[in-house]
Amino acid sequence: MKNSKDDPDLTLRFTEQELIMLGKTADGLSAYMGKPVLAEVGMDDGAEWVIFAIPIGTDETPDESAMHVQMGGPDAHFVGNKGGLDLDTEVYDCQYLWAIQITDDPEARFVRLDDQGEEFDFSNDLGELLPFELTDEALPDPDLEMLEDLDEEDDADWSDEEEDPMQRPKGPLH
């Protein structure tokens, strides 16, 4: 039984966590590229997609060989910081970078499209299709790593024939 437009299939929509990942990806790409990268979420045939693109400045000459998309406007839904642009009222001509679509294929929930809009890769794990690792794993403590490195160096400095200074008693013996 197909769902009506009033009852969308939630499996074909990004979860809140996936939208956060996509927004972080747009922000990371903006920092990496040194220019705003927009991530607009839309829907086609009941399935959501996200497009990543760079706004083309009014003083820039657009690359005619690159795909262009219009992004922004009152009904647009963006994730990430939006590059500081007024996307709620303005529409921008943008150079399309790539996109991710949700599919109903049980083997590939996500399909990544390349810069020409062609299927490039697919996965059931969104993180596998993104250019940055976005896990929230705890970072190692640099102070502990430094201590471990020092301990390894101390151990390596002493041969079996020499006495390890860590084993000698400290201070005067009475």
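Next protein, fold it too.
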Amino acid sequence: MPDLTIPEAQKLVDTWINQFEVGYWPPLSMLAALVEEVGELAKEINSQEGHKPKKVDDGDIDITMEMGDILFALICLANNYGIGLDDALKQVMAKYDVRDSNRWERIDKI
């Protein structure tokens, strides 16, 4: 699959979801799914960084797949609310540029 833009990713998820009768889950269920996926990523990173060893019955978790699951769940929520995530990211970056422009020491590039 070639690289996707954010709008293309949102369309891809929408097309996949809409092939099923059930369609999108209710927003609170989608939020719960997103939180579950973030928790799975957190558990794996915590284990890999050595702060909390895995239990014997914990299987291997692929961080890449967990991030993909998070992205899928977030896109589902955005699609449900008609939010373009590309515009949302642009707005947030503009906010950070203003709010945090002098917060940290910048790296001088020659």
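About the second fold: The radius of gyration is 18 Å.
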